[in-house]
Design goal:
homodimer, 123 residues, alpha+beta, two-stranded antiparallel sheet, two-stranded antiparallel ribbon
């Protein structure tokens, strides 16, 4: 496969000193919690253990001024979880950050791609 | 410490499918090889084992069309290592990618910072 045919994938972590960091793992989990309405199911969709998903949510809830995910007790879907307004804003800011960073990086990624070794098709 | 006072640090990995990936670890190692003239000393400066530094160099040498680091046999500094032209170009492209991506991400990082919880000064 020609190197230039490979669509590169970015993984961007932003570390805010002792405040903590945000990266693709946390953003993906927030998205899956929106989709599934549950921390456990959201984590499972990413191959994450129940414990790991809860730890990431607790870390994010402690990191931001308002919690990013809260439990929904009672109702038809008792025990579920939803993103707060802050949670939605954090996710939206991180995805916009990724988009703009990737776009700005494009010419440099192109230069790196021209230097990659071609991989035989395996035929 | 107020959240807005924390200069955020980016860690950007670019994954070129099965060709491999480049990120801050490999870029830092290339820089330290330039500085020290040696793979072992370069890795040591980053708290990396001799084995790990060599593995990263071998991975990069296989990933790009030309090797990024070559050994300098004989001479006053026998057993040293230098970056090839490709190695210098890869490092330069990755650093430029980081710079431009971080600049494009600034407004979004600012939005995330305003949402961070303040950390007491520890007094």
């Amino acid at each position: 496969m020609s190197a230039s045919q490979v669509p590169p994938k970015f993984r961007i972590r932003v570390v805010f000193g002792s405040h903590g960091m945000i990266g693709p793992g946390k953003a993906d989990l927030l998205e899956q919690i929106i989709r599934t309405g549950s921390i456990a199911a959201g984590g499972r969709a990413l191959g994450m253990s129940y414990k790991r998903a809860w730890q990431l949510v607790e870390t994010m809830n402690a990191m931001f001024e308002e919690p990013v995910v809260v439990g929904t007790r009672g109702g038809a879907k008792g025990g579920g979880a939803v993103l707060t307004q802050t949670g939605n804003r954090v996710l939206e800011a991180y995805r916009a950050l990724e988009r703009d960073a990737e776009k700005a990086a494009e010419p440099h990624v192109g230069r790196l791609q021209t230097m990659l070794r071609d991989i035989p098709d395996g035929k």
